[in-house]
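Data availability (excerpt). The following record was deposited with the supplementary files.
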Amino acid sequence: MAQFDEAVVRQRLTADLEQVERDIYARTSGEQAISPSEGSDGTGITSEASDEGAALTEYDRNQAMIDNDRALQRQITEALERLDTGKYGICERCGKEIGAKRLEALPYVTLCIDDQELIERGQAQ
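Predicted structure:
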């Protein structure tokens, strides 16, 4: 059985999920939001933008950060579901336990270090 304190893991994942949801909200609303507006050329850049290239780069960067946040949100939600079903800490590829230090560093991982390395080297089947 995997060596972890379920209550501690759940608390950490829940806190991480709340933080990423706040980040998504901040990036998609308020002052940080960058979106097409009136007077824009359809790319989200206003006619007042002095440097359209820089504005587009900022828009693209913001979109990439939102995409990354949503991917992390999904990983954390899935980790909480694995906790609920008793599958947390088990490698989804080989079925072995994921090391405690790996889970501590990345509590939402789904692969043991050996399988992760195989995939990164392109040797996974």
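Summary of structural features: The longest helix spans residues 52-85.
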